[in-house]
Specification:
The chain has 600 residues and is an alpha/beta fold. The N and C termini lie close together (11 Å). The protein binds 2-deoxy-2-amino glucitol-6-phosphate. Residues 299-302, 346-348, 351, 354, 397-399, 486, 596-597 line the site of 2-deoxy-2-amino glucitol-6-phosphate.
Length: 600
């Protein structure tokens, strides 16, 4: 949610900032801007509503500088507009900000009472004014003084023409990562903006501030105690952040799933004991046996993957498990139990609702395990232990490969817990073999893309769709509806197939097609009779399952019943993607959304 990038060094900052912003645009894309300190020491600012490319296109050739900050925005306070776009400026100071300043109204009122004219509706605009008013000699101290007046979350980057070549960045709840170059320094909210320039990075912790000069950096706490940071190396290839010939990141990421699943499985299956080993779990067999309940928390697709995970854990380990939206859990004063294993799921590792749920759990003494994609992210660091997805960067706003990898990691966790509880070696072997078969089976589904695309083109003409599934098919249906809504804006509602006759059957008509998840499991006959009820009311039915019953059937390869839901989700991703393409939408950057929701 919003991206920041900053640079100081001998090169012209402008192309570095605009290129970095373009790579961060998936985080927010309603307005963009940059501010640089020109060679003559003046502050040059350009910001505009719209995409980064539009903002950059209007830059005059003489717009250059040696240090600068940039921002791409997803509006929280104030509509997308030129005035509300970042950087915000006060005299010699320019600031870009991610996060929310909760006491902004109060601070704005004080500034106005002191005769300051505010030009935007944003909470962020108070920051440059507070910094500019400080009497501190060093920019770092002025920023510290300003931040001491702020209540809320922030990732910020600041330049001041009185301190040419100096950048100050700070973090509290919104990520900031420093990039170390050769006689130049970078900072960004996400390594995606840095990979082209350096692989040496330093992740700031909450409550930390850094001063960057071309020849290095120093870090300290908000109360000015020096901290020491070891740089780490970005392992991911630069190409992973590019579309690599695909028209959209979403399609690229759907096609990356066989490789992502291989990575999620690599080194984790134990052929001797037919179990799984998860390095970061930090749970010995005795502790694992003592778990009486598993509670999974995540938001959106991470929550639906968690629901699939809960089913796998109940089925394979026979431990009661359920999933709940982290965004609800954190507000309802939950009962936290010592013998419950809490699992936080997040692709970005930044989702504020999930992070807040983890913090509340830890405060109450709950044991929390993270299932996270982004290495070193806030949620990963906040948890007691964790399992990384290794899915690689996910850039499209709609989650696909991270969803699938999360489900695979849950299958591994369920296998691990199951083999410590009552899952037999034979069943352990059956599940392990099923997991090993997944990449090739996903490839097989991806080969049906053309057919699914033509079905999607056909379905895209309806205004609304029902997605139904029973038990194992229910989280699949929910994720299918979520994907369709997000990228195609076609209204989609997911229902448990068993609940149809208790209400939503009233909606069924020739105008409302149903996408039904029909695995060949012990419930197949029940599912078929539900579909009969829909067809009897002239509702069109598209089945995603294991049998070709009519022309509207998508047939996926059969795996073990517990693992089938992972495969059944893949055609729904393609369906949503191609419906959005058919409708001419901006698939990777759907309206009103951003990749990671780092605000309350
Ligand atoms: C997925 O397609 C969505 N964009 C969204 O629901 C997402 O899964 C959710 O916001 C959680 O994100 P996270 O996994 O980064 O925590």
């Amino acid at each position: 949610m919003c991206g920041i990038v900053a640079y100081t060094g001998p090169r012209d900052a402008v192309p570095i900032l605009t290129e970095g912003l373009a790579r961060l645009e998936y985080r927010g894309y309603d307005s963009a801007g940059i501010a640089v300190i020109g060679r003559s020491g003046d502050l040059r600012v350009r910001k505009a509503e719209g995409r980064v490319a539009e903002m950059a296109a209007g830059l005059p050739a003489r717009f250059k500088g040696g240090a600068g900050v940039g921002h791409t925005r997803w509006a929280t306070h104030g509509e997308p507009s030129d005035a509300n776009a970042h950087p915000h400026v006060a005299g010699t100071v320019a600031v870009v900000h991610n996060g929310i300043i909760e006491n902004a109204d109060e601070l704005r009122a004080k500034l106005v009472a002191d005769g300051i004219e505010l030009t935007s509706e944003t909470d962020s605009e108070v920051l440059p004014h507070l910094i500019a008013r400080s009497g501190a000699t060093e920019l770092e101290d002025a920023v510290r003084e300003a931040l001491s007046q702020i209540v809320g979350t922030y990732g910020i980057a600041v330049v001041d023409t009185r301190h040419p070549g100096v950048l100050v960045v700070a973090r509290n709840g919104s990520p900031v990562v420093l990039g170390i170059g050769e006689k130049e320094m970078f900072a960004a909210s996400d390594v995606a903006a840095l990979v082209r320039y350096t692989r040496q990075v330093v992740h700031l912790d909450d409550g930390e501030l850094a001063t960057l000069r071309p020849d290095g950096f120093r870090t300290s706490t908000l109360d000015a105690r020096a901290t020491s940071k070891e740089p780490s190396v970005i392992e991911t290839e630069e190409a992973a952040y590019d579309a690599e010939g695909y028209t959209h990141f979403m399609r690229k990421e759907i096609h990356e799933q066989p490789a992502a699943v291989e990575r999620a499985l690599r080194g984790r299956l134990d052929a001797r004991f037919h179990t799984a080993h998860l390095g970061g779990l930090d749970l010995d067999p005795r502790e694992a046996r003592a778990i009486r309940r598993v509670k999974i928390l995540g938001c959106g697709s991470a929550y639906y993957a968690g629901q699939m995970g809960a089913q796998l854990i109940e089925e394979l380990a026979r431990i009661p498990a359920d999933a709940e939206p982290a965004s609800e859990f954190r507000y309802r004063n939950p009962v936290v139990e010592a013998d419950t294993l809490y699992v936080a799921v997040s692709q970005s590792g930044e989702t504020y609702d999930t992070l807040a749920a983890v913090q509340e759990l830890r405060r109450k003494g709950g044991r929390v395990l993270g299932v996270v994609n982004a290495v070193g992210s806030a949620i990963a660091r906040e948890c007691d232990g964790g399992v990384y997805l290794h899915a690689g960067p996910e850039i499209a706003v709609a989650s696909t490969k991270a969803y699938t990898s999360t489900a695979v990691v849950f299958a591994l966790l369920a296998l691990h817990l199951g083999r410590i509880h009552d899952l037999s070696p034979a069943d352990g072997r059956r599940i392990a073999e099923g997991l090993r078969a997944l990449p090739a089976q996903i490839e097989e589904i991806l080969r049906q893309e053309d057919r699914i695309a033509s079905l999607a083109g056909d379905l895209a003409k309806y205004r609304s769709m029902l997605f139904v599934g029973r038990v194992r098919g229910w989280p699949v249906a929910r994720e299918g509806a979520q994907k369709l809504k997000e990228v195609s804006y076609v209204h989609a509602e997911a229902y448990p197939a068993s609940e149809l006759k208790h209400g939503p059957l009233a909606l069924v008509s020739p105008e409302l097609p149903t996408v039904a998840i029909v695995p060949d499991d012990e419930l197949v006959d029940k599912n078929r009779s539900t579909l009969g009820e829909i067809r009897a009311r002239q509702g069109r039915v598209v089945t995603i399952g294991h049998r070709a019953t009519d022309e509207d059937a998508v047939v996926v390869p059969k795996n073990e019943p517990e693992l089938d839901p992972i495969l059944l989700t893949i055609p729904l991703q393609l369906l949503a993607y191609h419906a959005a393409v058919a409708l001419g939408h901006d698939v990777d950057k759907p309206r009103n959304l951003a990749k990671s929701v780092t605000v309350d």
